[in-house]
Amino acid sequence: MVSTPSKITTITTNSGLQYLPKLGGSIKESSPNQELLPLTAKVNNLDHLEIGGWDVPGLVEKFGSPLYIVDEYTLRTACRQYREALKQYYPGESLVLYASKAWNSLAICALCGSEGLGIDVVSGGELYTALQAGVKSEKIYFHGNNKSVAELNLAIETDCIIVVDNWLELETLAALKKEQKEQLQNPTKIMIRLTPGIECHTHEYIRTGHLDSKFGFDPNQLNDVFAFISKQELLSFIGIHAHIGSQIFEIQPHQDLADVMVDAITTASVHNLSIKEINIGGGLGIRYTEADDPPSIETWVQKVSTAMVDACQSKQLPLPKLLCEPGRSIIGPACVTAYTVGSQKQIPEIRTYISVDGGMSDNPRPITYQSVYRAVVANKLSEPSTETVTIAGKHCESGDVLIKNANLPVTQPGDCLVVMTTGAYNYSMASNYNRVPRPAAVLVGNNEVNVILQRETYQDLLNQDILPERITMGVQ
Ligand code: PLP
Known about the structure:
This protein is of the alpha/beta class. The protein has helices at 56-63, 72-89, 106-114, 124-132, 149-158, 167-179, 222-229, 252-270, 297-314, 328-331, 365-369, 458-462, 469-472; strands at residues 42-43, 49-51, 54-55, 67-71, 94-99, 118-121, 140-142, 161-164, 188-193, 235-241, 277-279, 321-324, 335-347, 351-356, 375-377, 387-392, 401-408, 416-419, 440-445, 448-453. Strand 8 (161-164), helix 6 (167-179) and strand 9 form a beta-alpha-beta unit.
């Protein structure tokens, strides 16, 4: 059980913006994806930011900097809101999968698993981690547009559900099953990923549902695909999957998806295949800045569920099991990254750079997608914002800027700068660029703080390095 924070006070921080959830604290009232800070955030009596009952500058002092801080209450709340809304608005069976590409690690997979969620994985490594976290294989769905034979074999052996993306994969899978017939006779469950031809307004790199996408079968291939599958005794077809993109605020494209998916039920029935499960993907956006206004988890689930029910009713079809696979909206708002402020450079009449001890290696989203974040100075919450500065990372790359034009109070070296909503696609996309060790991550909740990722050491950086002796001998 995660205890509800006793008192949630609204923070009006530095720039005068209210970053905190509405008062009340009931799970239904606040959708984590509509907040900039985790739901347990408050100002403590030191005038510091506190998350999950822990003083943020204090956590940095104890666990080092930079530090990912994950709030268990916010994470569990997001999981529960998805689950409960599906129960409320979808009369058929349903399952929420956590899209673990957003942050795949033992603790995060186990937390989502303990909330009753299944896990979506896209590589052998993510699959292995989810299994090691204790998630049952019957709740693991394996995606990916270029799965290797080794990955397919691992999926077959561990009995998870494979979301087949293309012809090569389908034929390879059928051949592998025939080869393994003697040892593994149980059919492997498969779904088919289709490209629904739906446009949505998000960054082109995270748009996946339009026809010009590397993922999935075109709808006009489905007849041939279903004809092939209907002849495969060792593949058990259970349904179809589509995902239209990520960080989406509109609901209409998700509603339109229902009709495309339900059309596929009719196509499958021509080949005597029944679609028991429909997976509508993830994609619900989150609030990275005060300008972002995504729908709540509950509203999103309500609308997509109703669209699916309506689409099935209009064709007089029974309701399939409805799956969705959110990633960003589950883990994104639950985490902040705390950095320590270092050097500053003032360029008169141009800008002031404030450098922190991390950057593009722990958060590659700004340099990759021009993503915008907000920050607060965690040890100066009541000080007014009097400066507009650019927060730069420490990497040898001019583009390594975390936030342009941040409104902050006057900062000094040693201050604790917290970048908000960093749970999704930060740690999972982190690198060791410039041989910077990746940060530690702590989980705060239940009156405890647990390290869930150890800080990498310089020795860790060398673990995969091999120095052939003949080269060592040449070093002068
Ligand atoms: N499912 C699939 C197939 C995806 O590719 C993604 C992300 O790109 C997701 C789910 C999760 O999307 P999001 O994190 O936006 O919820």
